[in-house]
Known about the structure:
Elements: H1 21-37, E1 46-47, E2 54-58, E3 66-70, H2 83-96, H3 111-123, E4 128-132, H4 135-146, E5 152-156, H5 161-166, E6 171-175, H6 180-190, E7 197-202, H7 214-223, E8 227-231, H8 246-249, E9 258-262, E10 272-276, H9 278-287, H10 289-292, H11 302-313, H12 316-334, E11 346-352, H13 354-366, E12 369-370, E13 372-374, E14 384-389, H14 396-413
Helix pairs in contact: 2-11, 3-11, 6-7, 12-14, 13-14
Amino acid sequence: MKIDFEKASFKDFENIDGQDLNTTAYKFVEYLNFLKTNGHLNYRIESLTPVGPEMNLMLPGDSSPTWSVCLVSNDYLGFSQHPKVKAAVVRGTEMFGTGSGASPAIGGHFIYHQQLEKKIAAFYKKREAILYTTGYTANSATLQCLLHKQDIAILDMAVHASVYEGCITTNVKTFLHNNVEQLEQILKNAQNTYRTKMVIIDGVYSQDGDLAHLGQIADITHKYGALLVVDDAHGIGVIGDTGRGVIELFNAFDKVDIITGTFSKALGNIGGYVVAEPHLITYLKFQSKQHLFSTTATPAIMGILKAIDLVDEEPQWRTKLWENINYLKSGLVTLGFDVGTSASAVIPVKVGDIPKTLEAGRLLLRAGVYTNPIMYPAVSKKNARIRMNVMATHTTVHLDKALNAFADIDSQLHISK
């Protein structure tokens, strides 16, 4: 099977018809070399410096590093570099060492795990939570545990890949993004057909940066006796008066049955969590295989305990973040770029054409602006874009450099409206 590398995406190499594993892998490496030759392999770029508003990068083909404005990090509040958070990580390591040594049920559950479960649950005005080693696993493992062939998962089609993976053992229906009318029709048809019905949405959608229509979705979900799951990975610390995310924005603490999220974005660490009623959390702690048979997180998660405190103790970071979001978005709109319906720290510049998107990523990187070119299958083939993540630690100088770079590449590629 011949693949046109000019039009290809990673998706084309998942399962090539008629080719065995080694042949497929070799063909994929050939495709990566094609991207690299054209300066479009803007993935797995090595950084010589910590996460921050600027990073010193070893760009493909270069022999010396380049300082670049970083617009790819989810460290929205800059907490991965906050002195108090780092001090808490050091303290945890000094007290408990570098590892936990076992899975949670058989010796790997420590006081810092218990404290974090209670703290993240209370953050959402709940009583119990379960921890996972990643946010991805929090979704995939939980949904695989809770949903089976007699059940149905009803997904906003724009949910994260981890949700789709979590639903491989159950029936799945999708509805058009934020289309509450279509959601209601699916719920109506499923009402007497399936045992457990679960509607699963993101709070903030990671590609467009827009928000779920949470109020309407919650009401419709419960009208038909279904459970509502919200993954608010990109909302925590960013959205809401006190950073409790989209759930706080819609005052929906009592309307969301299961909350999932990650510590790897605004909270500056790694790991995932699920917050729900105590009976569901207890069930997951002994039935979710990826939790039960995985070694628990290291004592470094004591930094997360401090980061959660800082969301309340130092709200100026969220204020600064929103100043930066509004500044960059306003500048891009003034230049004529399409930023869609973004209402968060995720800002896309929609390009549409995949080769043009890849070239925009290359030109931006050469101008010292590190962004993410996003294309199929992460978004539809006609909806490729440059995606950026804004941080509280960006300065106006950083953001102006990005805006100037976009203006320059537009003169070459003509991607503005």
